[in-house]
Amino acid sequence: MSNPILETRGLTKVYNMEQENEFEALRGIDFKAEEGEFICVMGPSGSGKTTFINNISTLDFPTRGKVFIDGAEIRSMTDNEIGRFRSRTLGFVFQEFNLLNTHTLYENIAMPLALARTKKAEVDERVRAMAGQMDIEGILNKYPGECSGGQRQRAAICRALIMRPKIIIADEPTGNLDRANSSEFLAMIDRLNKEQRVTVIMVTHDPLTASYSSRLVYIKDGVIETSIERNQMSQKEYFEKITEINASESRGFLR
Ligand code: ADP
After folding, report:
1. Does domain 36-98+165-251 have CATH number 1.20.120.450?
2. Beta carbon of 151 within 6 Å of any ligand 1 atom
3. Which tens digits make up the pLDDT trace of 201-228?
C-alpha cells in the first residue's frame, strides 16, 4: 500500500496550557488519509473538528504528536518551507469564503500565482481557464461585494484550486450556500476527487453533504469515535447511516 498523503500520530492539542482553564481539545488522534479519498469530518459542536482541520492544514500546530503531509513532517520544516508547502499542496475552502473585498475576483484568484511569481501570461491563462470551469469568467472584474454568495464561493474555489493542490481542506464549505449552490459545489468537488484524484477532507454538519464522501470520520470529545467507509453502499444507504450516527448523538440530549 502507498504511503498516506496525510497522517497524524497521537495528535494532541491543549489550549491554555498550564493555566486554570487548560483544555485538551484533541486527545491523541491517529488518522490516515490515502491519496484520492474523500473524507467528511462530523461531530457535535465543540468536539474538536476545527482544531483538527487547523492542525492538519498547518494553520496551527500540535501540542504533542505529529502531522505528516505528503511525506513531510510539518514540525521539521522552517516557517518559509511551511508557507511554500501550504500554498502548493493544500487548497482551502472556508465558509466565509475569505475573499479580499478590495480586490476583484480576478485578482483574488490570481493571488496565489502572483505570490509564487508566476509569469503574467500564465497567470492570465490559468485564471481564465479555472474561472471558465466554474462558470464565472464573465464576472472576473467584479468585486466580491457585487457578487452573489454562490458566485463568491465559486471564486473562492477557483482560488483554492489555482495552484493545483493535492489536498483540498474545507471547513463547512456549504454552510452559507442555498441547496442549489451547495449541490453544484459538491458535484464539482466530487468531479475533482474522481477525475483528478484530489484528496478531499471536509468538515460538515449536513448529512447530505457528507453522503458524497467515501469515508466518514466522527469526532467526539477530541477523539475519533467512529469511522465508516461507504464502500459498496448506495448514497442513500450511506446517507441513512450518517443520519443515524448524528441522531444517536442528539438522542442523548432528549428528556
Ligand atoms: P468544533 O469545530 O468541533 O466545534 P473546536 O475545534 O472549534 O470544535 O473546539 C474544540 C474545543 O476547544 C471547544 O471546547 C472550544 O471551546 C475549545 N477551543 C477552540 N479554540 C480555542 C482557543 N483558541 N482557546 C481555547 N479553547 C479553544
Report:
1. no
2. no
3. 999 999 999 999 999 999 999 999 999 9
